[in-house]
Amino acid sequence: MREILIAIGEDPDRDGLRKTPSRVAHAYAEMFAGLRVDPAQTLTTAFDANHDEMVLVRDIEVASMCEHHLLPFHGVAHVGYIPGMHGRITGLSKLARLVEAYARRPQVQERLTAQIADTLERQLEPRGVIVVVECEHLCMAMRGIRKPGSRTVTSAVRGRFKTDARSRSEAMSLLNLHR
Ligand SMILES: Nc1nc2c(ncn2[C@@H]2O[C@H](COP(=O)(O)OP(=O)(O)OP(=O)(O)O)[C@@H](O)[C@H]2O)c(=O)[nH]1
Ligand SMILES: [Zn+2]
Predict the structure, then answer these.
(1) Is residue 9 part of a domain?
(2) C-alpha closest to that of 126 among 95, 80, 173
(3) Which residue from 43, 92, 123, 169 puts its CA 20 to 30 A from 100's CA?
(4) H or E element that contains 159
(5) Residue nearest to atom 5 of ligand 1 (CA)
(6) Is residue 48 within 8 Å of 88, Cβ to Cβ?
(7) pLDDT-based confidence at residue 51 (cuts at 50, 70, 90)
(8) Domain count along the chain
């Protein structure tokens, strides 16, 4: 960080910047903490329930860092699944923890979306999984093409949401309720 400050023509020893390298180190430890988390472990709390319909948690806040520019992208994730044959469900907060575990890494939005879906599919063996992520990328807003306000939407569907158009459109209509 000190080298970067020098490279941009700053004085790393001036008052306001002296502690900046260590501040950034602490901020990075927090923003990339997902690299030290096993995402599968976030789903170990599971309950048996007689629920074989969709469970959908909408508007889970996402703050991640694009791996190309190390600039933030932020927005929301919607995570849904249809419990499997044995009706195993997980705690609702665990879906948000799963999002965090993958978001707090250098990422691209497509991979973030697919990793959340694949881990849910592997760990819960549900009938279907749907993940939709909508984010604004600061590397497109603050620099480069400079298009603030554009949002990128990515989705990953597995199982029944992939094979059954009705399940998929039910999920999509639930996602659109608030618009
Ligand atoms: N697919 C995808 N692309 C991303 C994501 N985050 C950033 N990017 C893009 O990654 C690309 C990197 O392109 P490069 O040409 O290597 O880098 P660059 O010259 O800085 O590109 P510009 O942003 O167009 O100025 C850019 O088009 C970014 O918009 C992401 O999550 N998914
Ligand atoms: Zn970028």
Answers:
(1) no
(2) 80
(3) 169
(4) strand 152-159
(5) 108
(6) yes
(7) confident
(8) 1
In a domain, 62, yes or no: yes
CATH of the domain at 75: 3.30.1130.10
For residues 130 and 167, what is the distance between their CA atoms, to the nearest angstrom?
10
d(CA 142, CA 136): 11
| Tokens, residue 66 | 């694009």
Q: pTM (2 decimals)? A: 0.93
> Containing domain of residue 37, as a range?
32-176
Domain annotation covers residue 61 = yes
ipTM: 0.87
How many of the other CB atoms lie within 10 Å of CB of 17?
15
Establish if 72 belongs to a structural domain. Answer: yes
Which residue, 74, 70, 64, 78, is CA-closest to 149?
74
